[in-house]
Amino acid sequence: MSIFREMTEGLPRQAPGSAAATLRALGLVRGLPTAPRILDIGCGPGAQTIDLARASNGWLVAVDIRQRFLDELTERASAAGVLPHVTTINTSMFDMDFADASFDMIWSEGAIYIAGFYAGLTAWRRFLKPGGWIVVSELTWLVPNPPAEAAEYWARSYPGMGSIEHNCQLVAEAGYVSMDGFVLPVQDWWNNYYDPAERRVEELREKYADDPAALAKLDEASREHDLFRAYSDSYGYVFYVMRKPTA
C-alpha cells in the first residue's frame, strides 16, 4: 500500500465537509422530483452519499476508482438503512458511460479538481436532464491577493485553483444558470478531515521512522495542515450550486 493510501483510507472524509454543509447545499436545490436520480462523482467513503440518500429519498449512483472506498460506503449505507438506495460503481470520472439526460442531480464533494473545474462541469453536463442540478465543492481563493506562502504552495499543488469570481464566470460559460453557493466553515476542514488526518500522520511517523522518503511525504501533509491554520481566511472550499437550463 502506498503511503498516500495509508494516510487517507479509513478516514471519515476525503475532503473538507460535514453533514450540515451537504444538507445546506441540498437546500439550495429547487424542484427535484420526489425520488430523484442522483450521480455522486468521486464519492470516496460516501458520508455525503448517505446524507443525500436520507434527505432526498433519491436513488444514488456513487462512482469512485478506489474499491476500498466503495466497500466502506456499502458498509456505511447498510448500517444507515439506505443501502437499497445506493449503487456503487468502480470507474474513473473520465470513463463514465451513463446515458445522456439520465440524472436529476449530479453531486461531487472535493473531487471535481481531478477533472478540472470547468472541464468537469462541461463534461458532466450531458448526464443531466434539462433543468437538472449540479452541486460541487471546490478549493477556491477567497481573497484577491493571497499570502505568498499560500500562493506558492497551491500553485504547485493545484495550479487550476481559482477565485469565487473566476469560478462563477466559468459556471456561466459552461452553460449553467440559477447559481448559488457558500463557503464551507473552517470547522468543516478540521472535524472530519484534518484532525483525523493529523492523528494518522503521527501514527505513520512511528511506523516509518527509518524511511526518509515516507517521512518526507508525511512532512508535506503536515505542511498542508499548518498552512491552513495560518491562512484559512485566504482560501477554502466553496459549494457551487447550479442548474442546467430546461431548453
Topology of helices and strands:
Blueprint: H1 3-8, H2 19-27, E1 37-41, H3 47-56, E2 59-64, H4 67-80, E3 86-90, E4 103-109, H5 117-124, E5 128-141, H6 148-157, E6 162-163, H7 164-173, E7 177-183, H8 187-207, H9 212-231, E8 235-243
Parallel strand pairs: 1-2, 1-4, 2-3, 4-5, 5-6
Antiparallel strand pairs: 5-8, 7-8
* Unreliable stretches: none
Biggest beta sheet attributes:
8 strands, mixed
The radius of gyration is: 18 Å
Question: For the residues shown, what is the average pLDDT?
Answer: 96
Q: Structural class, from helix and strand content? A: alpha/beta
Count of beta strands: 8
Helix content: 40-55%
Strand content: 15-25%
Please report the number of helical segments.
9
Topology pattern, helix = H, strand = E: HHEHEHEEHEHEHEHHE
- The general outline is globular
* End-to-end separation: 48 Å
Summarize the structure.
It is built from nine helices and eight strands. It is an alpha/beta fold and 247 residues long. Helix 2 packs across helix 3 (47-56).
